[in-house]
Write a structure and sequence with these properties.
The chain is an alpha/beta fold. The chain has 17 helices and 10 strands. The strands form 2 sheets. The protein has an 8-stranded mixed β-sheet. The chain has a two-stranded antiparallel sheet with strand order 7-8. The protein is globular, with a radius of gyration of 18 Å. The chain starts with 6 loop residues before the first strand and ends with a helix.
């Protein structure tokens, strides 16, 4: 990113690549899929200007960070340990953690498991899901085992995208055939620009119907991209340079590591069983769009968040925004984050 140097930290034998800007209390920014640290390009300067030391890193398996061939390397405790280790490698004792998509799942889990390190948490797109990692209809806090839940959500003749990704080979074949085209289709189809013309009201829709009819369910023998929207031009918030950065990153790193995260969801559910219904104690907030698929299927988790988060500071809903929260609506996200940080 312009004006920022690539840096590396060596954490428990793992190389983590990161960008850093500013001085003050540490804020750790954790990206999701298919993203990299670059997805926080609008937050780094804004949060630094507001008086924070801001670090955005590539999670293991992504970008310039370490890649592993074994599934165990991508379990939730390993991902949380990366965040903890990075805070320590930066010479800090604590941090605020912010995550989007899979990064939100890691951020929520980190704050839940290690409140001694992470003093506050903000989730973007994905609500707190307890041991389920990603909250879904009928299982807002991981009440149900992921694999059979995914099968029930998809219905006959289809795979839920988390199952499809977890099988790895089929997803790899589709993505690697045309990395740039697949990334373009995935980003735009889940964005507000892709969804606004449909006129869908996610809050009013049956979440099962929403899931089964979208690109997040893949009919057997078909590909995810078969249900991508055909959008002729890129929006201002995700231009050709941005797509170039994503394409270069994933052509270099591949997709195996990121897809391992999905393959581990059942193992993560087992790993977090000991946490039970224990509350997430630190101050927390959620920011997401009303055209985000996670808002559509996360209604129960969102409405019941105060039951599991005693110091919940509220949900902020951005009208007309899709899944890529901090990229689609950077000014709103920056303002809300700074307000949250300053209230701590």
């Amino acid at each position: 990113m312009d004006g920022l140097d690539s840096k590396f930290a060596y954490v428990n034998g793992t190389r983590l690549h990161y960008f850093e800007q500013g001085a003050g209390p540490l804020v750790l920014l954790v990206h999701g899929f298919p993203e990299i640290s670059y997805s926080w390009r609008h937050q780094l300067p804004a949060l630094a200007k507001a008086g924070y030391r801001v670090v955005a890193y590539d999670q293991r398996g992504y970008g310039l960070s370490s890649k592993y061939a074994n599934l165990e390397a991508y379990r939730i405790h390993q991902l949380v340990d990366d965040a903890v280790g990075l805070v320590q490698a930066l010479g800090e004792e604590s941090a605020i953690i912010v995550g989007h998509d899979w990064g939100a799942a890691v951020a929520w889990s980190a704050a839940w498991l290690r409140p001694d390190i992470f003093k506050a948490v903000a989730g973007l797109s994905v609500p707190f899901g307890g041991r389920g990692i990603i909250p879904l209809p009928g299982s807002p806090f991981g009440e149900l085992e992921p694999d059979p839940l995914h099968e029930a959500l998809a219905g006959p003749g289809q795979d839920f995208y988390q199952t499809h990704f977890g099988k790895i080979d089929g997803a790899i074949a589709e993505m690697e055939t045309d990395v740039r085209g697949w990334l373009r289709g995935a980003v735009l189809s889940l964005s507000g620009d892709g969804l606004r013309p449909t006129g869908m009201d996610f809050a009013a829709m049956d979440p099962i119907d929403l899931i089964r009819g979208s690109a997040l369910c893949i009919a057997h023998g078909e590909q995810m991209k078969d249900r991508f929207f055909d959008i002729p031009s890129l929006p201002n918030w995700f231009n050709e340079n941005d797509l170039d950065a994503y394409t270069t990153a994933f052509e270099g790193s591949g997709f195996v590591g990121p897809l391992m995260y999905y393959k581990n969801l059942n193992a993560d559910w087992e790993d977090l069983a000991s946490m039970g219904d224990s509350p997430l104690q630190v101050p927390a907030t959620l920011i997401l769009g009303d055209l985000d698929i996670c808002y559509g299927w996360g209604q129960e988790a969102i409405s019941r968040a105060p039951e599991r988060i005693p110091n919940y500071r509220g949900t902020h809903l951005l009208g007309g925004c899709g899944h890529w929260t901090q990229q689609e609506r950077p000014e709103d996200v920056n303002r809300l984050l700074i307000e949250f940080f300053n209230s701590l």
